[in-house]
Amino acid sequence: MTITLLRRLGPPLLGGVVALGLTLPSNAAEELRIGYVAPTTGIFAQVGKDMVDGFQSYLDEVNSDFGGAKVKFIVEDEQAKPDTAVTRAKKLILQDKVHMLVGGLLASSGYALAPVSTADKTVYVVPVSAADDLTQRDLAKYPYMVRTGWSSSQPSHPFGQWACDQGYKKIVAIGADYAFGYEVIGGFQRAFEACGGQIIQKIWPPIGTKDFGPYIPTIRQDADAIFTLMVGPMSLQFPKQLAAAGNKKPVIGGGTSYDEFVLPSMGDEVIGHVSALQYSAALETPKNEAFVKKYRAKYGKVPSYYSETNYTTAQMIHEVIKNNKGNFPGAEEFVKQVAALKLDTLRGPVTIDEMRNPVQNIYIKKVEKKKMFGYDKEELWNTVIKTYPNVSQFGQFNKDEFLKTPVYSRDFPPCKFCN
Amino acid sequence: MKSQHIKVLIVVAALAAIAIIVPNTNSFVILLTTRALAFSILVMSLDILLGYTGLPSLGQAAYLGVGAYLTAILATRYQFGLGYDFWLVVVLGILFAAALAAIFGLLAIRATGVYFLMITLALGQCAWGLAYRWNSLTGGDNGINLRARPKFGIDLANEVTFFYLVFVLFAVSLLLMYTLVRSPFGRSLAGIRERELRMKILGYNTWLHKYIAFIIAGGFGGLAGVLWAHTAGIVSPENVVLTTSVDALLMAVLGGAGTLVGGVIGAFIVFGLREYLSTLVPWWQYALGAVYVLTILYLPTGLMGIPERLRQRRAATGNREDVKKMAPVTS
After folding, report:
1. pTM surpassing 0.80?
2. What residues pair up with A391 in beta bridges, in sequence order?
3. Is residue B323's pLDDT more than 80?
4. How far B297 CA lies from chain A's nearest CA (Å)?
5. Set of chain B residues whose Cβ sits within 8 Å of the Cβ of A105
6. Distance of CA A191 to the CA centre of its chain
7. ipTM of this predicted complex?
8. Rg (alpha carbons) of chain B, rounded to whole number
9. What is the per-residue pLDDT across B215-228, written as a single tens digit (0 to 9) for each?
10. From CA A71, how far away is CA B17, in angstroms rounded?
11. B25-278: which CATH number, 1.20.1250, 2.60.40, 1.10.3470, 1.10.10?
């Protein structure tokens, strides 16, 4: 065998990959570095874009100036995979020396990023990832984390009551098979069964399911309504296939099933579907109307809750930094000050409870085709049909009793009325 | 044999360079290199099957998953493997993964070619299904967070210390696999790859050879998993999903199957582009795609095939020059 060129080149090549990393960023003063993690590639890229655009639109509005501090906004792609999220968070902390981490889409990303914040004593602001236990049973583990978005089951608690008020007795739930799905459906089940309803079946397609053909025929025919919880591309696919299968039952669902990240791409089959969330692009307040118009002019689509929650998160961070005259007050103090904020935001008044989760309005929304905000075309909008004001993550339940029960899972609450 | 010695020296020099340069770079590069090294063990284990035995497996991530989940479950539930017993976890990870490979192998080894590919793919997805659906054990899609790295005299929470540990285990794995493929056993694997029927006629039990290679590859996959769990600090179904297996296969092919070191180069290139370039530019996916396409088009034998092709070209041009020299004489 001969001496081969590449094997000679091997060491410098490997060294080269390594040497790329030798260029360290400089640390300018008066700079607030915000490390942002969102999926910008893969099946959740559209959601990731809304997240980043939402945050960016606030930065543009204030010219990236937070009370004198220049904001450096560094976005990293987490690909909706928890271990990528961890690597990227480490990059932001170690290499970019960020003051805080913001972002993370899926429950799994939230649960993966929170321990990083604890280990590296870095603030983690959670605008999207809604995993209940971050601000419930696991709160003590994450002293540097504060949530500015919502917890998964928060809109479900009033929504379950609403379903009872509509006279539904038996409901079939179908939802993405992961923590967020368990929590949205679990919260709905707890509230719905507390007021006399029955969940008679739970179906769990894996997250990212593209074909619901095997699941739809198994939906029990004696149900009064179907509760769906979809995320990402699943949201678009499920109602299409459900309509094609000739469904005549009312359909209600978690907020992400009909959120505006996907609503403009949906067909008329979703008209009349009802969902619950802390935001709707169709909120008729002057503030929101201005936001929707501005956002749409810039990014070519209406903002989704992903856009709004990140816009609001940026606003909250701004508020705290401004109160500190442009200085970052340190991780512990920052979290404390965010938790003390009382703000009037796009989604309505927001305060943060002692477990660092927002207390906010929950809107029951119905998909309607109509003209809004002076746009001349008929489009799908999430019209607010009922508002539950100032809902905490425990909703109508007693906090202490709530925390004694386990976190919602595939088996909790148990499906007492199945079969 | 002298050239073989030089090749070995070059690899040793490259490893030494990594061991010296990397700890002096910034911590993110150390983290990435650690990840790439841990994953390289999986790629090399796959190369034993793909490159040396001719078995293209699409389920190698399952063994990484066994090692990783075992580590995570023992550490979070039983606080086991966080001291000197870490080494026991390493052994257990290898044994469990090898045991799974022994079961999967019984089903998969009878098939060859594309059928082998399909069966390993299906078995790999079974492992993913378990990881995703068995919530009480694996935490489902949330996965399992490891809160601490082992501490025994040395503290592995320190990234540099941990890098050295992974580096040493990587080097040992490389040495063991290198010894394996150059042993008589490894030679007969290559024989099976080239022409199984002939090996059978010569009296070799080719099924047993392939089966043992499959188990050994599984064991190394388990080792990669144990290290991966502590590198990332989180184990989730993403580690077991099909794309992880495909990644490993692509890295092996990119670097050059049947070379062991090729897989490592492939892993470093992919990690470099996907994890590092992606933090710098948004078009990293095009770069990665271009590397794959160009390799398949122009270098079917992978990057490790470049020297051989250069040599052939040199030989070809050399021949033409010989012809030119001869031309005046004949005219």
Report:
1. yes
2. A360
3. no
4. 19
5. none
6. 21
7. 0.81
8. 21
9. 999 999 999 999 99
10. 39
11. 1.10.3470
